[in-house]
Every structure is written in C-alpha cells, then in structure tokens.
Amino acid sequence: MSLRVLVAVDGSGHALRAVEHLLRLSEAGCVLEAHLLNVQLPLETGHVRMFIARESLEEYYRDEGLEALREACALLERAGQAYTSHIAVGHAGEAIARYARELGVDLVVMGTHGRTGLRHAVMGSVAVDVLRLAPVPVTVVRPAPG
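The chain above was modelled as a monomer; its predicted structure follows.
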C-alpha cells in the first residue's frame, strides 16, 4: 500500500506525535511519500510592510519555519524515511487544506493539543478547520495520556 501523506508540523511535541504516527504507518508496511508542512502566521497586517522589507519578512518566515520543522525532520531522517518539507504563510487550517489539495495527498496527519470546553471555544482549533476544509481523510493524533 502506498500513501502520500501530509503532516502538519508546528514545532510542538504534539506535532512530533503526528510524525511518530507516520512512522508507525511505515513500520506497518505502508510505502509513504511524506510531506511535512509548517504554516507561519502572516505578519503583513497593518503597517508592518512599511517598516520591514519583503525580503526580510520572507527570511523571517523561512527561518521560523525551518526551526519549527527541525525536530520532525531529524526524527524522519533517523528513521530513514524520505520526506519533502514545505513552509507556508497564512491561516493554518486553510493552508494545510490547500497543500493537501495541491499535493494530491491521500491523508493529512496532525497532532492536537486536546483542548476541550471553553479553552477550545476561545482558542479555536486548527484541527477542526482542517477536518472541515481538507479534501481527504484527516488523522488527528491526541496528546499522550497523563
């Protein structure tokens, strides 16, 4: 079985659990084409563009994105799993769904903070947005128990 999988990575331990899930799919015999995606929130609101050159802003997004991807890439490299990494700028849920469409993936895998109730309502949920917008199945990896 061959799967093209997009893993959303934000640099958190929750994202690493999603990468570990991807590796379990590989260990179970799936041939994977792995794509890691980090989404940077845009800073181009208000008058930011008046004070920061576009090149500096793009360099900032790239540097922040690479840092967020660093541990996930290292985990895949240690496991011998090939991957392609991507950095996008925008609203996370929308960008993840857009990349899923553009890359033609079969599955999106992402971690979640596991917030519920008021914290979920106030903070929103990238996972909920991706579940609503993605054109393919989404596996949401919950936090470790305890």
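The radius of gyration is 16 Å.
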